[in-house]
Amino acid sequence: MSKNYWLIKSESEVFSIDDLEKAENSTTYWDGVRNYQARNYLRDSMKIGDKVLFYHSNSEPNSVVGVCEVVKEGYPDFTQFDGQNKHYDPKADPNNPTWYMVDVKFIKKLKKEVTLEEIKQNPKLKDMKLVQKGNRLSVMPVAKEEFDEIVKMGK
User: What is the pLDDT of residues 117-149, one digit of tens each?
Assistant: First the structure.
C-alpha cells in the first residue's frame, strides 16, 4: 500500500513543533479541525505511517518546521462534545460525529525552516496546494515529490 503525504498547519503560539516534541511519547491528537474538506482527509484518507509536514501558520514567517507521522487513523474529535472546549460544536451528535482527528508523532525538526516565500519561489513546488490562491485548509495532501523537496530544502 502506498504512503500518503500531508501538510498540517498550526499557529506556533497555540501548538508548535516544540510542543509536539515535548508531548508524551512525542505524540498528540490533531483536534479542532472545523472545515469539511480537511475533516474528510482526517476521517477518510490519512493512514498510519503517512508522513506529514508540520507548518507554523500566522507566524513570522509562515514556514514548514518539521516532520511528523500519522500513528492513529481518523476517529471522532471528542472536543466537539465538550461544552467547555473552544472547539465545541453544539450541533455535533455523539451517535453521528461531525468532526474527526488523527494522532501524529514527532519525527524531526528541519535544520532550517522552509518559509512560505521559499516554497512559492521554488518552481518544483508551483502546483502545491499550499501556494494555490484561496487554499486555507489546515490539513492538505502533498505530493511525495513536494514532500521530498521541502525536506531537502530544510537541510
Answer: 999 999 999 999 999 987 889 999 999 999 999
Cβ neighbours for 129, distance < 8 A, ≥ 6 positions apart: 7, 135, 137, 140, 141, 142
**Residue 30 CA: distances (Å) to CA of 15, 46, 121:** 10, 12, 29
Per the CB < 8 A criterion, the answer to whether 109 and 66 are in contact is: yes
Cα 14 to chain center, whole Å? 14
- The per-residue DSSP string of 82-146 comes to -TTSTT--TT-BTTB-S-EEEEEEEEEEEEEEEEHHHHHH-GGGTT-GGGSTT---SEEEE-HHH
* Residue whose entry in the numeric block shows the C-alpha cell 513546488: 125
- Of 99, 11, 107, 97, nearest in space to 50 by CA: 107
Overall pTM surpassing 0.90 (yes/no) = yes
